[in-house]
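in:
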């Protein structure tokens, strides 16, 4: 091996200031902060977005109706820590945290199938043509200042339904953590590759890639370069410790629930402490077309324990006011049971809630009719919901970003943020 290709670790890190994977860094194209972000408007620093995947029955959780005898009998409402607010009996721990929450009972989705509804949920846009819209997390990663050291500003945990960065490219994609217990994968060198060999290989790759980059100018190459550059820095960073939830006390796992969802919530809290802007995770299995009450309590208990523990833990650590906890679902379930004792998809009306993050706690927004079949006041579209989160972070909702075809897009698709839910309107 030629000595010129034998990079020491010091030389690698020094050279990475001006290049990555052999591709010279281009001049920064980041927008001026005032164009995309306004700190004075922001009420939160971080967002934890929890997707109740499959379709949470609103009439069995956060919008129980006296006229719905099945839901009243199975999911009878209980009192909460917020005056005048009652929720289903399957969520007793969350009932004690409702003074931190704003329940939205007037959500409405235009899509009734999981794939299409999840696309709209994540991006704020309906899926049309060949355009791949960015997740809300990608918008935040692009437009808000980075505050998490070497950790990317957008992280998805476990089986999150997050779709990706769409036309924005890999530079703003989420860092995936498949299993919260195992931490970040593929971040260490293989056993048979030491630092010296690793750097020599990088040097060889640099020399190969440099010529290609000179001949072919393309955004995908720039994105690849930046991603590789960030990965190398992360591999040598102490920030990796944040992914090791095994350092938490045993009592923490008992409080959150010692299974994947509870562990995901623990990791989400650790990432908030590190300054990560947007963390997405999911609680799956809510597609109850058959016998909804056979397993509803099991799923509800897991969700209830993890989210309630997360809210309480953030408050104890002084982080709840600067962290917006979002619990949302792609649609509700039909208020009327079907002939299989289950509930079908119901996008017309459903519920979600927000906690912390400058929210005026202990409130309900919007209303459905006496059966929970349709929204009668305060209708909230998915784009409005996403715009509410983006506005809380401090993003400029009018800032236009174009895709590769030159088409203009804004975060939340011109949705109207529910600023009235926040103390700082």
């Amino acid at each position: 091996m030629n000595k010129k290709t034998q990079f020491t670790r010091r030389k690698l890190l020094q050279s990475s200031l001006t290049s990555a994977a052999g591709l010279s860094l281009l001049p920064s194209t980041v927008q001026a902060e005032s164009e995309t972000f306004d700190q004075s408007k922001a009420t939160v620093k971080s967002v934890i977005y929890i997707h109740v995947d499959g379709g949470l029955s609103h009439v069995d959780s956060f919008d129980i109706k006296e006229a719905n005898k099945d839901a009243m009998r199975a999911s009878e409402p209980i009192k909460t820590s917020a005056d005048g607010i009652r929720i289903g009996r399957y969520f007793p721990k969350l009932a004690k945290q409702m003074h931190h929450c704003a329940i939205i009972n007037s959500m409405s989705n235009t899509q009734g199938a999981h794939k299409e509804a999840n696309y709209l949920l994540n991006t704020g846009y309906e899926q049309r043509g060949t355009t791949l819209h960015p997740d809300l997390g990608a918008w935040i990663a692009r437009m808000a200042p980075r505050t998490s050291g070497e950790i990317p500003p957008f992280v998805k945990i476990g089986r999150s339904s997050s779709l990706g960065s769409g036309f924005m490219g890999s530079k703003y994609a989420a860092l995936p953590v498949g299993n919260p217990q195992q931490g970040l994968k593929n971040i260490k060198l293989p056993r048979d590759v030491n630092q010296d060999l690793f750097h020599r290989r990088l040097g060889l790759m640099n020399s190969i890639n440099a010529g290609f980059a000179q001949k072919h100018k393309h955004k995908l190459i720039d994105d690849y370069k930046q991603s590789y550059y960030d990965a190398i820095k992360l591999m040598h960073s102490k920030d990796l410790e944040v992914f090791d939830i095994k350092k938490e006390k045993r009592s923490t796992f008992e409080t959150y629930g010692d299974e994947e969802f509870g562990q995901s919530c623990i990791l989400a809290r650790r990432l908030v402490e590190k300054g990560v802007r947007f963390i997405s995770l999911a609680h799956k299995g809510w597609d109850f077309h058959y016998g909804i009450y056979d397993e509803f309590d099991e799923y509800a208990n897991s969700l209830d324990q993890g989210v309630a523990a997360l809210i309480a833990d953030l408050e104890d650590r002084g982080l709840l006011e600067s962290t917006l906890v979002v619990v949302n679902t792609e649609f509700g379930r039909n208020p009327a049971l079907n002939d299989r004792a289950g509930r079908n998809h119901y996008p017309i009306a459903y519920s979600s809630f927000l906690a912390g993050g400058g929210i005026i706690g202990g409130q309900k927004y919007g209303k459905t009719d006496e059966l929970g079949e349709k929204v009668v006041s305060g209708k909230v579209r998915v784009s409005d919901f996403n715009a509410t989160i983006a506005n809380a972070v401090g993003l400029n909702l009018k800032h236009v970003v174009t895709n590769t075809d030159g088409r203009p897009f804004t975060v939340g698709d011109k949705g109207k943020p529910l600023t009235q839910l926040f103390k700082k309107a």
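note: The first strand starts at residue 19 and ends at 20.
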